[in-house]
NCF1 factor
Amino acid sequence: MGDAFIRHIELLGYEKRFYPSQHYVYMFLVKWNDLSEKVVYRRFTEIYEFHKALKEMFPIESGDINIENRIIPHLPAPKWFDGQRSTENRQGTLAEYCYTLVNLPHKISRCLHVVSFFKVRHDDMNPVTDSQIKKPEVFLLPKDSKKNLTDITGPIVLQTYRAIADYEKSSTSEMALKAGDMVDVVEKSENGWWFCQLKNKRGWVPAAYLEPMDGPDESEEQEPNYAGEVYTVQKSYTAVEEDELTLKEGDTIEVIHKLLDGWWVIRKDETTGYYPAMYLQKAGEVNISVKSELRNRGAPPRRSTIRNVKSIHRQGRKQISQETYRRNSKKYIQKQQKMQGNFQNKANVIIEKKEPEDNKPKAQPAVPPRPSKDLILNRCTESTRSKIL
């Protein structure tokens, strides 16, 4: 039998999960060439990373060389905070994307990258759950929508942003901007660099120089997570501003707030500060393209360092002071330490109570007295009585 390949991918719906934190995963029914059918679960961020890698593997078919040659479908970048509404609205685009993907030339649709991504993983068969947390909520795609993709699929509309200041590009892959320029965002990278187009120009632009048209504060920007996500430093950085941190390659830190401009608030022990997101990698993940990206492009500028900002909004962006980050982060650490201490004390009390009982000699079971001959003759069966006669 030849190599495995995918015959069809069908979007079934999505799940709302609550462990280890609330998030959403899409459910796909993958039909293989051996007629087997498997259900897999993928987060949209995973799908988007898969999509970006696919474009890098096939630059001609992705339109990087000539836009007219593009056959790989578009996929909008993930929002910084994925709620249930955005997860639900994205289903049509995903269904159309999978349909187009499977019908691409075999060198793309049957390549190892595509096959590996949709193969069943251990987590697909045994999703990580916690009995104390609510069970996942399943939202299935209506059957009528599956039959007719046009009912759920609309055109992929690019978001339009406005430049708040002049920006001079520093490399050929970037794009210069003038204050007031209206650009369409093709791809949003969480490292703070967004790929934009302006008329016939295309290139990378710092997200810090762009503002949405409907308000000064990004609704996509997620709230701080003082529990923290563990990341590893991929490149050393020496602090320039007072609220930044100096770290060395290989350091382990916790990310507590992911900001749109690519400068994340991180925690090292009990110290917090800003650090370039593109110099960080999630612990346990292996990304070969990280090193090359660090060489090709430096950290984007921070919003607070941009001069002569001309915003169209009267109200400024909501900002959290570094003192607030430190105070809330310290509170969280102390709370966790207190909870661990209480748990340890309870465990010690239980052990101390049990120790005296464990040291006592165990009582031996009592041996019943042997029944008399008369009792056996009166109460036992014929078989038992015959043995004493």
